[in-house]
Amino acid sequence: xxxxxxxxxxxxxxxxxxxxxxxxxxxxxxxxxxxxxxxxxxxxxxxxxxxxxxxxxxxxxxxxxxxxxxxxxxxxxxxxxxxxxxxxxxxxxxxxxxxxxxxxxxxxxxxxxxxxxxxxxxxxxxxxxxxxxxxxxxxxxxxxxxxxxxxxxxxxxxxxxxxxxxxxxxxxxxxxxxxxxxxxxxxxxxxxxxxxxxxxxxxxxxxxxxxxxxxxxxxxxxxxxxxxxxxxxxxxxxxxxxxxxxxxxxxxxxxxxxxxxxxxxxxxxxxxxxxxxxxxxxxxxxxxxxxxxxx
Length: 295
Known about the structure:
With about 300 residues, this protein is an all-alpha fold. The protein contains twelve helices and no strands. The protein has helices spanning about 40-65, 70-95, 95-100, 105-120, 130-160, 160-165, 170-185, 190-195, 200-230, 240-250, 255-265, 280-285. Helix 1 (about 40-65) packs antiparallel against helix 9 (about 200-230) and helix 5 crosses helix 9. The longest helix has 29 residues, at about 130-160.
């Protein structure tokens, strides 16, 4: 357990985490679900490629770290987190057959993502003891860094009114906002777990750099893959200029906002409760059609 002083939450807003039964019908969702803007839709579609494998990996790692948890409330939070992440993985996985039916086969890219999480970041044949524990703590810290960005994206999508104004497909928006709301809801769990079992600042900074670099690489590669393989585009390309344009329009996160999130995570006084609003997240979850709130 960490002896490092742990940053305290800004406010106490602890709630019980639970996996929700969700259902999304994709038959009416078009390939270009943001009308007239395939780049924005495909950039967000990268989530469907990354998250199924990534969140299965989260679950695998967290099941291994459960014996290290000595705080009962944190243990319950981690169990709730595991349930939510498993549901996220399945929900995004369900989008892929629909994309394939529309002529965009994601299999070549998802095979690469699966290799990353299952082989490069997966379990290794290590002797019991310090080496095995070191690898487990590296992955726990990496998940905390990734969760900083999933919470950032969750807060962004909950407030991305520009997508509504552009007429984005309501089912896709509901999937993204249900998922984003749960990311905001459980945004403190991964960081609190890391601080509980390790908490070393050098490890936090090192794994942040690894996670950030990998996410940027995978996301731009995924957007380029979708644009290049979209059967309706003659010369589909993805560029950073397009990303900046969409950020200014509010249909994607602004690059400047993403960059400003870096020093916040690396601050020694950082705590995830400083990001987003639990009240807003819970309110959306209560109204989400896919999560049963709108029925």
